[in-house]
Amino acid sequence: xxxxWRKANYLNIGQIYxxxxxxxxxxxxxxxxxxxxxxxxxxxxxxxxxxVHLNRxxxxxxxxVVYMAGPGHRGPALVANxxxxxxxxxxxxxxxxxxxxxxxxxxxxxxxxxxxGRRVLQRGQERVRDSAVYCRGPGADHAPRLxxx
Length: 149
Prior knowledge:
The protein is α+β, with helices and mostly antiparallel strands. It has one domain (2-136). It has helices spanning 2-17, 44-61, 75-85, 87-91, 99-108, 112-115; strands at residues 65-69, 120-123, 126-129, 132-136. Helix 1 packs antiparallel against helix 2. Mean pLDDT is 73; it is low at 109-149.
């Protein structure tokens, strides 16, 4: 579980900050950093911690679970976890589970909202954002699933 959590945190940093050199094969340079950062590191470790422990409980007790992460900066954390488990690649085959996929994922974070089901609804002056929902269990075949870790 600790290794999964550390991998997810590393992927979060890559999604938020890096546009090149995701495996740090060379010393970090200014041109590796995104000019505009999208996402927020502060929420990522906690969301990743919940995800990895929730997976453990799902598998141990064969639970049907809905993991709802509210609006805001939750995108990188959930994308990192579904990337690690392989679901992201199932839905987006061009985001492979290798260095090239990490580069593609890091650059596509700009559109992560569309990929994770977030949309903005206008209600007069009020803007309401729906939450990302990840499910496991009967009737959840249309949603990305939490998987064994």
